[in-house]
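Appendix C reproduces, verbatim, an entry submitted by the partner laboratory led by Prof. M.T., so that reviewers can inspect both the input and the predicted structure.
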Amino acid sequence: MGKDSLQVNMDEFLPLRDVVFNTLRKAILTGELKPGERLMEIHLANRLGVSRTPIREAIRKLELEGLVTMIPRRGAEVAQITEKSLKDVLEVRRALDALCAELACERITEEEKEQLAAACGEFERATKTKEATVIATADVALHDIIVAATGNQRLVQLVNNLAEQMYRYRFEYIKDESQHEKLIEEHRMIYESIMAKDSAAAAEAARIHIDNQERSIMKQIRLDSRQK
């Protein structure tokens, strides 16, 4: 992690503890704070220019979210991306994404169809930047349109609750440039199925999309474990 890369972006509407929490969570989700990296309160407090109290509170909340692990005699560490944690998150997301695709077939508006078409194009353009953060943002925007098209607020909430964990795995997947063409094709399959109002095809395309992510990230996890 670069010396000056971790910075607090102050928000006048949020308490300091929430600002610190959001800063550390974003750093973990984007890989700026890497799996297994120790989170030392004094070091982080000095880096962010805050006291140890909001750091301690943020670490406690991150532990509850599963992004931080407390190790005996070592303290807090960024949680590893394990096969079990990956399977747990994607198992739920697979079912939710398939449901979202099905409902979008029935409920998507003309305006949302236009937004989805534009998002597919924007994602393809984003892959050409080779910037993982830009690609991940475009990917999230595309999927958010499908989720919103369900018109089901409970479902939107469930997906959003998983979004933080999902972003971490998606980021690992997106960093693999060899997968970009496949991602573009998978998005096209989901889009065309929704446009055709073929709920079975849309749900299956959504499941394939998640399954391919799981295989790719699992391969990376196993490669990383062999290199350690």
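The first strand starts at residue 68 and ends at 71. Additional entries are available on request from the coordinating office.
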